[in-house]
Amino acid sequence: MDILKAIRKRRSARGYLDKTIPEQVLGRVLEAARLAPTAANKQPFKLVLVTDKRTKSKLVEVSKNQRFIAEAPIVIVGCAFPEESYQNIGGTHTSEEIDISIVFDHLMLQAAEEGLGTCWIGAFDEQQVKAILNISSNVRVVGLTPLGYPSEKEFKPGKHLNRKPLREIVLYEKYKETT
Ligand SMILES: Cc1cc2nc3c(=O)[nH]c(=O)nc-3n(C[C@H](O)[C@H](O)[C@H](O)COP(=O)(O)O)c2cc1C
Questions:
Q1: Which end of the chain has fewer CB atoms surrounding its CB within 10 Å, N or C?
Q2: Given the CA of residue 161, which atom of ligand 1 is nearest to it?
Q3: What is the C-alpha radius of gyration for the chain, rounded to an integer number of angstroms?
Q4: What is the number of domains present in the chain?
Q5: What percent of the chain has pLDDT above 90?
């Protein structure tokens, strides 16, 4: 088991090959999503898998025209249920956005392990995505991701691991402002 290897391998893929994902591979990616933890194990989410070309094109249009999304054989739309989620995160928040974010992360790491690419898509119009997919008003669309074999287009090796050093993000014992 080498989780860090998959974490280092994952990156946002913004170009995809026209190549089918074998059923068993897709099954493992979805199994990773299914096993994600959610607050109080409420599992307040569903994943819509879109493969239809016309529907994918419509999703592109309402996602700032990010064309690479439709290149992938599957677009996964993360739907979350505020009413079914845990209601008291930190005394103020419902859990559905956190829950489905963890689901997406599980899915994306297993995808990386399988040699597949993904890319969190947050730049989309929620109401329009809901209209395209017949999603009811009490459901939130939190994120989308294409899923497919990545082409190397627009990929600069190493750049995706450009992160703040630990000393800038980890504090010990008490919070303090750092420069
Ligand atoms: C919540 C969220 C929303 C994002 N939305 C988009 C998006 O709409 N389009 C896009 O190309 N990348 C999007 N990204 C990808 C980030 O730009 C990317 O994860 C970040 O630059 C780090 O690069 P890496 O994923 O290759 O490690 C999003 C990422 C997150 C976590």
A1: C
A2: 27
A3: 17
A4: 1
A5: 91
Residue 174 inside a domain? The answer is no
What range does the domain containing 70 cover? 3-169
Give the pLDDT confidence score for residue 36 in this predicted structure.
Answer: 98
Question: Residue 15, CB half-sphere, CA atoms under 13 Å: how many?
Answer: 6
Domain with residue 157: its CATH number is 3.40.109.10
Q: How far is the CA of 121 from the centre of ligand 1 (A)?
A: 6
- Indicate the DSSP class of residue 104: H
Would you state the pLDDT for residue 157? 63
Give me the mean pLDDT over the 22-41 stretch: 98
What value, to the nearest 5°, has the Cα angle with vertex 146 and ends 143 and 151? 145
Q: What does the longest C-alpha to C-alpha distance in the chain come to?
A: 53
pLDDT at 154: 62
In a domain, 121, yes or no: yes
Write phi, then psi, for 49 (nearest 5 degrees). Answer: -100, 115
Question: How far does residue 53's CA lie from ligand 1's centre (Å)?
Answer: 23
